[in-house]
Task: structure prediction
Amino acid sequence: MYIVQIASECAPVIKAGGLGDVVYGLSRELDSQGHCVELILPMYDNMRHDHVWGLHDAYKDLLVPWYDSVIHCSVFCGWVHGRLCFFVQPHSGDNFFERGLYYGAPDDPMRFAFFSKAALEFLLRANKRPDVIHCHDWQTGLIPVMLYEMYGWHGMERQRVCYTIHNFKHQGVCGPEVLRATGLNRDDYYYRPDKLRDNNHDAINLMKGGIVYANHVNTVSPHHAWEARFSSIGCGLQPTLDAHQYKFGGILNGIDETIWNPESDRYIPFHYSTIALKTKFSIKRPCVSS
Result:
């Protein structure tokens, strides 16, 4: 299969938390199984360029519709430890990704709505037609919405979306200006409870949009999927997950044993294994009584 991962992080070039590790590790594993995997990421000004090899222009003049105009973007291509990555760089006075941070700006929903729009526009204009678009967390929640409501009518009707939620706490709750910016102009249509209207506030919920519109939705383990539906872990999304339970499940996250391996980890002073655990206790700090 041809799979395109669209995410706000990919370790080690862009890493703020576990999302980056999963995106990189999953891409590598899929590649090892014989799938063709590419990644689309924002080109942050503070990303680790020292982890990118062969960075070059891939698409110089990507014009992304935004409000009633367009924003000119460049798309660069490079290899991140064997993974083929495309980096979207907007040329705009908004400086979406030139702020010295990944997250934490007051206009984060607008920043990542633009990234989602630009990623789809790049796939469309570069004539890339993956079998599966795999997007992650609220930052890319608008991708399945725009794919179904817009891009599916312009030559991308066969693409299917898997949407993975790593953290239910952050959902991308925002106002209708995000809809207008991306061209999803029918506020009354998207504000419906069965569409993007937040379950607790008079607002748009980007993560909810991803759940409603994606072909499949998953999270980091079967038990976490159960918790999200039946406990406060779902952070208000329980009714939406219940309504879409037929396409929602959990796949247990694993670890990359080539990195997290106590037999060879260069960041620990003593190595150990399952049959030789004795040195593990030498690494642990001794308890100090107060």
